[in-house]
């Protein structure tokens, strides 16, 4: 059982010792200024048995921040703060990439020190609420980016990628899903522009491709992953012509290390994407009937040929030694969802390994 899951695989320049990938998950344990902490180094180091760790979303600029205590990669201080994290993972033979995530219109000025107004393709507020220390807050209307500002955001992603390599990361993943900025440009309800970045599918994918190409040119495409979430309505997204969007996006991608696909009950579309994309795919499977992604679900995805590696979310939070538990067939612990976002070490670095102690 799990023979394929525990076998090595190569994603671009990244030689993974197994196909168990730690999915990006916001944990909000950075400082208010976005610096990584010693606690974060412990957390990621504990999970270094993964074939690859993809960090929580990291803002590539001040205006990219949408959540409190989320980490950044847009200053030299940020890069320095991440070095103990990457060192902790590498000391155990692991690989780690930083997920670059610009939140766009998702956020609220009261949640971060800069208090900035959110930016987006168009001045369309998201339905839903942000959650601050004092309770829920309606998402405010964002400011539409100018063409000149779009070019600056593209450069910010490339600069952040360069800082990531300086900080010791093995590469980066560009977040183009889950209703954040790149996804906002792709979707028809959030992108109401009439210039070269709006309207047709070709125009709506332009920004994402410019970001991906700029990052690839800066650090090498073989160190770059891209995360997409076709048909995902999260953060008030309505893509419209979903199949056309992703067919065009994938056709325009440079030879990146991997495509990371978040499944959402749309296996037929995932299969079509797999047929089109000849490179490697990391799949974050859809948990059927509320079942957390486990070894059986992951192995089935590998057997079906829709994935080269599989991303685990909550299972990795509660099981720092997840690959070893998969190897031995041990039962998986359940994560405490009340401790997912913010706080101290509780529900973060205190989950025991099979030996019964925190890793």
TrEMBL record:
InterPro entries: Aldolase_TIM, OxRdtase_FMN_N, Oye-like. Signal peptide: none annotated. One of its GO terms (molecular function) is FMN binding. Its cofactor is FMN. The keyword Oxidoreductase applies. Pfam families: Oxidored_FMN. GO terms for cellular component: cytosol. It comes from the Bacteria. This is 1,2-oxophytodienoate reductase. PANTHER family: NADH OXIDOREDUCTASE-RELATED, NADPH DEHYDROGENASE 2-RELATED. Keywords: Oxidoreductase. Residues 4-330 form the NADH:flavin oxidoreductase/NADH oxidase N-terminal domain. Belongs to the NADH:flavin oxidoreductase/NADH oxidase family. It comes from Streptomyces katrae. Gene3D superfamilies: Aldolase class I. The keyword Oxidoreductase applies.
